[in-house]
Write a structure and sequence with these properties.
The protein is an all-alpha fold. Helices cover 72% and strands 0% of the residues. Helix 1 packs across helix 2 and helix 5 crosses helix 9. The longest helix is centred in the first third of the chain and has 20 residues.
Length: 189
């Protein structure tokens, strides 16, 4: 990795920390310089505009999440196994609460910016892999039309993640909820 790449990643990490702690309005080039103990104006060299700073943060969030979520070699074959694996994936994601608080803040704030909002939702680098994993899991446990149900499964996991990092659900076990949802899909499918 080059020094330039390292600096860009550090800027993205600092931006995530700032937004997670103080909200998107607190994100400025100066705030990033302060967070990284850089001379004033240093961040501007790598991200000239505020939008470029947000783009760096969006890409950093995506890269870190891709690193956290590696799809299994084989999908789970039973509802209990699938629920356990999905709950474990949720726990892995929840280990970076600042990332997800920043992502949720961006989702709300960027609704008017189709390009950046899409990078967090429909065109997210994570979305295709998550959909493929969800479809494979649902298919393996016998859910009819897994492609139709995969987006809802992702929404369930994201809702549980939101509850863990922004709400009060840290002590609510996810596995039984996921198991109940999957059981319902299998039995009513």
């Amino acid at each position: 990795m080059t020094e330039s790449t390292d600096r860009r990643e550090a800027i993205g990490d600092a931006a995530i920390a700032i937004v997670a702690k103080d909200g998107l309005r607190a994100l400025t080039h100066r705030a990033v310089d302060r967070e990284l103990a850089l001379p004033a104006g240093s961040t501007s060299y790598y991200a000239r505009t505020r939008r470029q700073l947000i783009e760096a943060m969006v890409h950093r969030l995506a890269n870190r999440t891709v690193t956290d979520l590696r799809p299994p070699a084989e999908p789970a074959r039973t509802v209990p196994e699938a629920a356990q694996r999905l709950a474990a994936g949720l726990a892995t994601l929840a280990r970076r609460p600042a990332d997800h608080r920043a992502r949720y803040a961006l989702l709300v704030e960027l609704t008017g910016d189709e390009e950046l909002h899409a990078l967090l939702t429909t065109r997210s680098p994570i979305r295709a892999g998550a959909l493929a994993t969800a479809e494979a899991t649902l298919d393996a446990i016998g859910v009819p039309e897994p492609e139709a149900h995969a987006p809802a499964l992702i929404a369930l996991i994201d809702g549980l993640l939101f509850d863990r990092v922004a709400g009060g659900g840290r002590d609510v076990p996810a596995e039984p909820m996921i198991r109940a949802y999957l059981t319902g899909l299998v039995t009513t499918g």
